[in-house]
Amino acid sequence: MSIYRAHILLPIDEGTIQAGVFEIQRELKTLLQQESLEQEIKILETGTIGVIGKGVQIVVYPDDVTYLNVTPDSLKEIFAEHIVKGRIARRVEHYTAGAKIATEGRKAIGLTRTQQRIVLNKCWKIDPESIDDALASGGYQGIERILSQGITPDQVIKEITDSGLRGRGGAGFPTGLKWSFTRKAEGNDKYMICNADEGEPGTFKDRLIMEGDPHKLVEGMMIAGYAIGAGKGFIYIRGEYQLSIDRIQKAIDQAREYSLLGERILDTDFSFDLEIRKGAGAYVCGEETSLIDSLEGKRGYPRIKPPFPANKGLWQKPTCVNNVETLANVPDIIFAGAEWFRKFGTEKSTGTKVFTILGHVEFPGLIEVEMGTPLREIIFSYGGGIKGGKRFKAALVGGAAGVFLSERLLDVPMDFESLKENAAVLGSGAILVMNEDADMVEMLSSVIQFFVHESCGQCAPCRVGTRQLHGLISRIREGKGQEEDIDQMVAISQAMLQTSLCPLGQSLIMPVKSAVENFRQDFLDRIKQSVN
Hints:
Number of strands: 14
Number of helices: 21
Helix content: 40-55%
Oligomer: single chain
Structural class: alpha/beta
Largest sheet: 5 strands, mixed
Strand content: 5-15%
Distance between the termini: 78 Å
Strand order of the largest sheet: 2-1-3-4-5
């Protein structure tokens, strides 16, 4: 076994692939060969480090120095200075853990601040395509504890319930309670489904979890399947997530080879297997009954509830549907215990939350922080503040189906209860930040256009309501609006909330009402321009 003096971690995700990471990988291998350093320096492919929009990145470990926007030319300088001479290549954009960016005298990159990671704790530290790396770093210890110690399904559900884990897909429903419904449902054939469709604009947390630590999701599915009494699980992944699909499939295949999936797992009576199903990119399939219809091979239409999936879901059998991030919390909770998990977050919103920070911030990307972390800290400490030194104006929190928050709510804790008290939602964890130049009429127009496109058309309130909203916002944008059009949009959204079949139509009230209430002047200014 070779002992290396340094590792060069090469984060590979959809973003770095587009930026040319494989070209950098080839160049790096060539440089190592030229200097005869293949036995001293190891290149390790990893998942994301959470930084996006910064091209190809490499991390030199154990020095813990990360280089950004790496090109073939800058790679040569990094190699000559850091790898050969052992000193930081200071002319190349970089940061060290807790230190400062070396170029342009910038402050410390926000995303490198200390984070309390549970879901993402191994994403950039292991080879995501190696089950041996997963096992060496503590993977599958949760399911091993259950099976070796004879922990019953009801005890597993109690542990998850006691932990306070709530759904991370947006609804925030208690996970243990959801599992108990399916566990108690009548029937021998039960199914566990992972919702990895992730159609919310600005949200890519699930993709990066799957790309960075696919075995954690596999183990979470196994534990959930054991708890509810399912023998089969499905991971429903949007078809555009090809790298996620490839890595999850590889993890499933490796787990089968190690007898961690299939019949009589670890020589016990527990049998469970997994299968991937691809989604076709329909936003409505993020709703669990639409997803189930799609998984059955039908058009993804929301079902009327009741009956709920816990009793009649996939092929009319008891079914439980959980989000990727929710399931990725499960292995650590089972291994470390509910009390350990409750140390993080707030009393009613326990644990951590993965957020995607986008828009007018210095450092867009992915972070994981404790529930209850203030929005201001997320934007200004982790996101690096507003790009170009401009002022903050708004943040769309929770994705397209979220809420536009003004500066007045910058200090709101990001947890389920605090946001609910302020008529907001945590949603998918997407945070789109807008500076002082943002036009809220244009922003709301984009949201409404998205809903018009994604409405499945099954129910009239959503089918007709989205079109009416689009007509009103378009009239305002084109300089033909009237002040009553503003309140009419809220009224239509309210009617959709009360009468639409699924959350797609029901949720438009949040962006519409919050935009109008918090930024009404933007709409009035546009109308005044039309009058003049």
